[in-house]
Amino acid sequence: MNEEARKDWDTYFMDIAYMVSTRSRCPRRHVGAVLVQGKKLLGTAYNGAPMGVPDCSEAGCMIAEELEVVEQDGKQEMVKKQRCVRTIHAEQNLLLFTDRIDREGSSVYVTDEPCWTCANMLANSGVTEIVFHRSYPKDSDKVNEMMSQKGIVFRRLQSYEPPRETAMTVSN
Fold first, then answer.
1. Residue 84 scores a pLDDT above 90
2. For a surface tag, which of 42, 52, 61, 100 has the fewest beta carbons within 10 Å of its beta carbon?
3. 84 is in an annotated binding site
4. What CA–CA distances, in Å, run from 93 to 3, 36, 42, 77, 97?
């Protein structure tokens, strides 16, 4: 294989995150995350119900609705958010199943931009970089601001194309 056909590291690790996401049984969104230090893969995780508990495909989604005040165009508006509370997010599982020492100075590749809760957890986890592909506009502005305040590199791979076998229709 010549060097020109070889994938760059961002593509390589994001491909792995997407492959990991195929383990998810969530009907709304498959999310995968990988922990990387340098070029070494340290852990993988995906979203789903706790081990040994029926997941959303078996027991249905547990949707909780929340209202949040957001500022748009200089005025405050109430926005309704829906979240599945049965599912542990991929980023949360990654933090549960990796060691703090491994996270110090590491990067997280995640298929989707972290929600506010996951962003908070990642910001306190020791990682110094978060790379994602699909945006999550519900929390994007405040997550970007926090990452900037924390000095965590937070970047989206916009021109990235996931492996075909990982494709699914995403619900927001």
1. no
2. 52
3. no
4. 35, 15, 13, 33, 6
Query: Tens of pLDDT along 90-141?
Result: 999 999 999 999 999 999 999 999 999 999 999 999 999 999 999 988 889 9
Tell me the pTM: 0.86
As annotated, the active-site residues are 91
Predicted confidence at residue 61, as pLDDT, reads 81
Share of the chain above pLDDT 70, in %: 95
For the chain, how big is the Rg over CA atoms in Å?
Answer: 16
Residues 111/32, Cβ–Cβ less than 8 Å? yes
118 is in an annotated binding site: yes
* C-alpha distances in Å from residue 162, one per residue of 4, 111, 137: 19, 9, 20
Query: Do 170 and 31 contact (CB within 8 A), yes or no?
Result: no
According to the model, what pLDDT value does residue 62 have?
Answer: 83
Which CATH number applies to 9-47+87-158?
A: 3.40.140.10
- Among 61, 59, 51, residue whose Cα is nearest residue 29: 61
Q: Is 133 annotated as a binding residue?
A: no
Return d(Cα 87, Cα 144) in angstroms, integer. Answer: 24
Note the Cα 113 to chain centre separation in Å. 5
